[in-house]
Design brief:
Elements: H1 3-12, H2 20-46, H3 50-74, E1 114-123, H4 129-139, E2 143-151, E3 156-165, H5 170-179, E4 183-189, H6 198-211, H7 216-224, E5 228-232, E6 249-251, E7 254-258, E8 264-268, H8 276-292, E9 300-304, E10 310-316, H9 321-330, H10 333-340, H11 348-354, E11 360-366, E12 372-381, E13 384-391, H12 400-414, E14 419-424, H13 429-436, E15 442-447, E16 450-456, H14 459-465
Antiparallel strand pairs: 1-3, 1-4, 2-3, 5-8, 6-7, 7-8, 9-10, 10-11, 11-12, 12-13, 14-16, 15-16
Helix pairs in contact: 2-3, 6-7, 6-8, 7-8
């Protein structure tokens, strides 16, 4: 152990640090001061100008003491500094961590601004490949918060959750990974929700799916990242029923899974191939959904309209098809054409689809006699979300549509949807007014004679304006 380390240890333990050189210098200064004092005393005692010399000496001593005090305050003794790894000649100020450019530094050990990243790369399946990757990340002061491995036939896909310095760009990070042997690297910003470990997150998605059949597409999207999910009939045009086997199909960036009703769930993610591990997780969620069968959370809200009528809002499902058909029979042709954008024949063609939890969520409005007088739909349309309303003629202009729409939009925001859109006609003033009444940013677009109104969902704004269960 060298002298510097010993001094630091002794200082930490509360014992003073002494050096023999310092003692010799102090002793020499003491003898010199005694000799000077004796000479001055003899000069004052035997000289004619003794009082004047005494006064001058006092002034000199006072000036010296003042200078010493000023110098000690300006150049105080700093505690012994540990080795911080700074290079000789570095512009950093010793013991302060400051650089001459900014004059203000970050104290040692206090982290600066950081950024969360999700990074995925493929490495060779051989000893030391992951170690080389971790060493490269450590060289850029990147902290690995979590790691998942996806074994492949020719290598391993490593998925990291990283905390990197805020000044480190994504390009430099991916370049370091490439130099360490990573290939096919993909990176995107992460947030606090990604800090949940993978088993906990998957169990949470399974719980949501078990409680509500409509959660399956949302759970798959959260499990697999940004992707497009569609549910299509199983039988293709040529009538081949076994195009998708029961165990599903993995095709690079496309997953195909068999849903309970025989339909096919297609998941597409063009920017990143799926791994067998992701395919197995998705298939397990779909199998859980199949075993539990159709299910809808039970619960209802009783509301009082401005006119004093009481209504009940609840989730609806395929068990309500008969009551929904009766409501359609009481609606006028104009009301049905505004809802379905043209003449409506047999409601059997679309009600089973609209009320199925596999394609979205439906809210029904009931009177005290349990007669359905309005339906509101939130439909998963690939990576978009559609809202649609149908209110019986006798209950229009009474706030029923606004109540339904507010709850549907709040459900979409809770599910993580970035926006919802409604397809209607410019003459449908009730729907237009209900969308404007949301108080959210709206975009209007005319497509083939129909009006498409898109509401951008800002979580803070939605939570402040729309409350489910009011």
């Amino acid at each position: 152990m060298n002298r510097k380390t010993t001094d630091v240890t002794r200082a930490k333990n509360g014992r003073p640090v002494h050096h023999w050189r310092r003692d010799v210098v102090e002793l020499a200064a003491l003898f010199t001061a005694v000799a000077v004092a004796d000479a001055v005393a003899n000069l004052i005692g035997h000289g004619p100008d003794g009082p004047a010399l005494l006064l001058i000496s006092a002034l000199v001593l006072l000036a010296t003491a003042a200078f010493h005090t000023w110098w000690a305050r300006r150049h105080g003794h700093a505690p012994p500094a540990l080795d911080t790894g700074a290079r000789p000649g570095s512009p950093e100020r010793a013991g302060t961590g400051e650089s001459p450019e900014d004059g203000q530094g970050t104290p040692e050990g206090v982290p600066g601004p950081s950024t969360l990243w999700r990074l995925r790369t493929t490495v060779r399946d051989e000893p030391g490949s992951l170690a080389a990757l971790c060493t490269a990340l450590a060289g850029h002061r990147v902290d690995i918060l979590s790691l998942q491995t996806h074994p492949l036939g020719h290598g391993t896909v490593d998925e990291f959750l990283l905390r990197a310095p805020g000044t480190l760009p994504a390009g430099e990070l991916t370049h370091a990974v490439a130099l360490a042997g990573g290939s096919g690297t993909w990176i995107e910003r992460a947030d606090a929700h990604d800090l949940v470990d993978a088993p906990t997150r998957i169990l949470g998605l399974a719980t949501r799916t078990a409680l509500d059949a409509a959660e399956l597409p949302l759970a798959l999207r959260q499990l697999l990242g940004r992707c497009t999910i569609r549910q299509l009939p199983a039988a293709p045009a040529d009538g081949a029923q076994d195009a998708v086997p029961a165990e599903g199909v993995l095709e690079d960036t496309v997953l195909r899974l068999r849903a309970p009703e025989g339909s096919v769930i297609t998941v597409e993610r063009p920017y990143l191939p799926f791994t067998p591990t992701e395919f197995a997780r998705a298939r397990a969620l779909v199998e859980l959904d199949s075993r539990l069968g159709p299910r809808i959370p039970r619960g209802q809200d009783v509301l009082t309209l401005p006119e004093g009528d009481a209504i009940t809002v609840r989730r609806a499902g395929t068990d309500d098809v008969a009551a929904a058909k009766e409501m359609h029979g009481r609606c006028s042709s104009r009301t049905l054409s505004l809802r379905y954008h043209g003449p409506v024949g047999d409601a059997d063609r679309y009600l089973n689809h609209l009320l199925s939890p596999r394609y979205g969520r439906t809210l029904a409005v009931e009177t005290p006699s349990r007669r359905i007088v309005a339906l509101g739909h939130l439909l998963w349309d690939g990576d978009e979300t559609e809202v649609a309303l149908l209110v019986e003629d006798a209950w229009q202009r009474r706030g029923v549509g606004s109540q339904l729409l507010g709850r549907l939009v709040a459900m979409a925001a809770e599910a993580g949807c970035a926006s919802v859109y409604a397809v209607t006609q410019a003459s449908n003033t009730g729907m237009v007014a209900a969308m404007r009444g949301l108080g959210l940013p709206l975009d209007y677009q005319i497509e083939e004679g129909t009006l498409v109104i898109t509401a951008r969902l800002e979580p803070a704004a939605v939570s402040g304006r729309l409350t489910v269960g009011e």
